Amino acid sequence: MSDLHPKRLLGKVVVVTGAARGQGAAEAEALTREGARVIATDVEAADGCRRLDVTSDKDWAALAAELKEAYGQVHGLVNNAGITWRARLGDVRPEDLDRVHAVNVTGPLLGIQHLAPLMPPGSAIVNIGSSAALTAHYPVAYTTSKWALRGLSKTAALELGPRGIRVNTVHPGYIDTEMTASAAPAFREANIRETPLGRTGIVDEITPLVVFLLSDDSSFITGTEIPVDGGLTAHGGVKSISDALLTEGGR
Ligand SMILES: NC(=O)c1ccc[n+]([C@@H]2O[C@H](COP(=O)([O-])OP(=O)(O)OC[C@H]3O[C@@H](n4cnc5c(N)ncnc54)[C@H](O)[C@@H]3O)[C@@H](O)[C@H]2O)c1
């Protein structure tokens, strides 16, 4: 690559969770292209992925010890692993809530607890939230977990700021991955209707922001939350009102 396009993460050691497929795999690839030494991890076996169950304190402790031994420092963490559970208010069980929160909230917490001690000033953490964290999304366990992750991100930004460690959250809208493919077709269609850009997103529309937030280009940005959702959460539910009026002549 020419000097006009310097690699933005050269020399940085970055851990990505849930990197066996979907957004995590794309993030790991993009970070590697920018020169990072990426440790791609997942609970599922996959080529190039080290096994790590984000809910396991033991797994995180082992990873942290390995990274300390191998590199001495870690400069980035992408808390990307996540699961959904689409039970609605009347049906969701406490154990569903616990299971989803274990991956989506406890996982990122453990990652931060184990890796932040290895992070020098200038390091960065990116948590992958969801448009569900900004709205009254219908799957209760998923929505509450992603709202909780926002709280964790804010608290971590506050606590780690004095050490020069930044923490930001990316909120994807509907991105075509196995997670969204497992929903009913009506879910995809309704998302497209509610999205001002009129389409779904792809994984490589998330990765540039993740690269930016891990790089020194965002050195004064922390505690923020950025939706990457084609405008879904920006209109606060009024798109259908606007669209209905447009079909009746515009006013
Ligand atoms: N796809 C979307 O539309 C969308 C929208 C908003 C937010 N998100 C979020 O983006 C992130 C990535 O989602 P995706 O769409 O790529 O989903 P995905 O289901 O394709 O990939 C998720 C990955 O996380 C891994 N994982 C699950 N449990 C784990 C655990 N306990 N430990 C380690 N890894 C685990 C899975 O094995 C899988 O590889 C998730 O946090 C998800 O909630 C996705």
From TrEMBL:
* UniProtKB keywords: Oxidoreductase
Tagged with keyword 4Fe-4S: no
List, alphabetically, the InterPro entries matched. NAD(P)-bd_dom_sf, SDR_fam
User: Please, which domain of life does this record's source organism belong to?
Assistant: Bacteria
**Pfam families, per the entry:** adh_short_C2
Gene3D superfamilies linked to this entry? NAD(P)-binding Rossmann-like Domain
Tagged with keyword Oxidoreductase: yes
Q: Which family does it belong to?
A: Belongs to the short-chain dehydrogenases/reductases (SDR) family.
Spell out the protein name for this chain. SDR family oxidoreductase
